Amino acid sequence: MTLRARGLSVAVPGRVLVDGLDLAVAPGTVLSVEGPSGSGKTSLLRVFALLDPPAAGAVETEAGPVDDVPAFRRRHVYVPQRPVVCPGSVEDNLRRAFGFGRSPDAYEADRARTEWRGLGLEHDLAVDAEHLSQGERQRLALVRALLLRPAALFLDEPTSALDEDAVVRVETRLRAFVDAGGAVVLVSHDPGQRERLATARLEVGA
């Protein structure tokens, strides 16, 4: 499903960061949002994900304006650079995504283990999530998002705390997601990563 911005503006008190943006993000696309620090990249991701309201304009799907925000968020998932983990095990954290308007029975334990191992994580899912490193938390958040079978992922520096091998694994999984018809809106400080993944680019703060 195509995601659209129509006349979208993003602002913080006293400053407009993005003004009157019109674009479409189609399935199979990786849109790299680029610009200097403080230019509004993360703020734009959060508005795209309907976590924060735009200053003007709207985020829409191909069906038109979004009238069910919780349902939209379950299909268009924001993954922050520093994910918060909840008390409990890794699996408790993965299951948590299915407690907001979805049946807990939708959680796929076998698929969770496959996604977890595929990103190079060796911990058992019973391990306490609060003991994970920052890089492991980033991958936990990505696995949790993927388990929801989203249409789009909004990724804010998804590999900033990862070593080279883990970066390769994450990028490989993201390519598979996109090849299967998913869309990604990506903020990354790594120009090599942007070059490897991006199919389109958006400059902000220029």
Notes on the structure:
With 206 residues, the chain is α/β, with parallel strands linked by helices. The chain starts with a strand and ends with a strand. It has a 5-stranded parallel sheet with strand order 6-7-8-3-9, with helices on both faces. Strands 2-1-4-5 form a 4-stranded antiparallel sheet, with helices on one face. The protein has 7 helices and 9 strands. Helix 3 packs parallel to helix 5 and helix 4 packs across helix 5. It has helices at residues 41-48, 69-75, 90-96, 109-118, 134-147, 164-179, 191-197, and strands at 3-12, 15-25, 30-34, 56-61, 64-65, 76-79, 152-156, 183-187, 200-203. Helices cover 33% and strands 25% of the residues. It is globular, with a radius of gyration of 17 Å. 32% of the residues are buried.
Looking at CATH, the homologous superfamily is: P-loop containing nucleotide triphosphate hydrolases
Structural class: alpha/beta
Helix content: 25-40%
* Rg, alpha carbons: 17 Å
Strand content: 25-35%
Strand order of the largest sheet: 6-7-8-3-9
SS elements, strand count: 9
Let me know the largest β-sheet: 5 strands, parallel
CATH architecture descriptor name = 3-Layer(aba) Sandwich
- In whole angstroms, the N-to-C terminal distance is 29 Å
**How many H/I helical runs?**
7
